[in-house]
Amino acid sequence: MRLALENIGLSLGGKEILSDVSFTVEDGQFVSILGESGAGKSTTLKVVTGILPQDAGRVTFDGVCVDDVPTHRRDVAMVFQDIRLFPHMSVADNVAFPLRMRGVSKAERQRVADEMLEAVRLEGFARRRTFELSGGQQQRVALARALAARPKALLLDEPFSGLDEQLRDDMRRLVTALHERFSITSVMVTHDPDEALVMSDLVLFMSGGRLIQAGTPREMLLSPAHEAVRTCFNDSSAIQGDVADGVFACGRLRVPAPDVADGPAVLVRVPGRVPFVHALA
Ligand SMILES: Nc1ncnc2c1ncn2[C@@H]1O[C@H](COP(=O)(O)OP(=O)(O)OP(=O)(O)O)[C@@H](O)[C@H]1O
């Protein structure tokens, strides 16, 4: 689904939170939203879901305005940092919950739960209670649940923040793999510039409720339009080597990669595979 925000404005409690925010996420793209705390990133996702209706502008899905469509009919799924599973239900029942809400038969719910648990590598966990799972496993259940009803878009609000660095890296790879498998239009809020660079087709940078730059990871690195963008990508700003389409080089990239020492590295994004880091030295 192609998702577009057009000139969105929103005030809360007399304070302007979003101002003239416009961007388009093409069908199947993965987009990250970066920016300082309070920039309006989460609020932007809430406008997409309809949880917070905007005061100005419009939201369209495949060119059709959804401003009058209530949240539960917008058919977008959201994954949060705090995982929000149902503790009294099994893992499989959690995953199948959105289907139960739609009156899908028990047999079909079970089939989809099995498929989704396989997709997030939790086969064999179907009958467990969610409190018996680790934080990383619970986040994988949340992802499986979000995707179970095949939503038109997946919104992720700092989904990895509560996880340690190794788990974060596993989850980044899993989310990238799920995005490619299901070809789902995805928007992720993150504080982590490297995460945004590694995972995204397009990066949106917000500041003070405005979208101050939108570009590919390569454009954000090579042509930061604002000092805030340059500072954010500071650790990745020592560009080295040739820059070619789909491949760019940068120094001191902090993306965890067990086989890469602290040093110059190339971040490689190839369509159809998980991005990887390749040491230059
Ligand atoms: N319901 C609300 N009422 C009043 N102000 C709000 C409300 N929700 C958010 N805000 C304010 O709107 C601004 C943007 O909040 P938002 O959560 O979108 O920022 P963010 O960029 O996601 O920040 P963070 O990275 O810290 O999560 C903040 O100043 C916040 O205090």
Descriptive report:
With 281 residues, the chain is of the alpha/beta class. It has a domain at 3-75 and 152-233: Rossmann fold (3-Layer(aba) Sandwich), CATH 3.40.50.300. It contains nine helices and 13 strands. The protein has a six-stranded mixed sheet, sandwiched between helices. The longest helix is centred in the middle third of the chain and has 18 residues, at 165-182. The chain is globular. Bound molecules: adenosine-5'-triphosphate (ATP). Adenosine-5'-triphosphate binds at residues 12-13, 17, 35, 37-43.
Mind telling me the CATH superfamily name of the domain at 3-75 and 152-233? P-loop containing nucleotide triphosphate hydrolases
Stated plainly, the CATH topology of the domain at 3-75 and 152-233 is called: Rossmann fold
Share of β-strand residues? 25-35%
Gyration radius over CA: 19 Å
CATH class of the domain at 3-75 and 152-233: Alpha Beta
Overall pLDDT confidence? 85
Question: What ions, cofactors and ligands are bound?
Answer: adenosine-5'-triphosphate
- Beta strand count: 13
Compressed to H and E, one letter per element, the order equals EEEHEEHEHHHEHEHEEHHEEE
SS content category: alpha/beta
Distance between the termini: 41 Å
Residues in helices, as a percent range: 25-40%
Instruction: Provide the low-confidence segments as ranges.
Output: 236-261
Tally the helices.
Answer: 9
Give the neighbour order of strands across the main sheet: 6-7-8-3-9-10
The CATH architecture of the domain at 3-75 and 152-233 can be named as 3-Layer(aba) Sandwich
Overall spatial form: globular
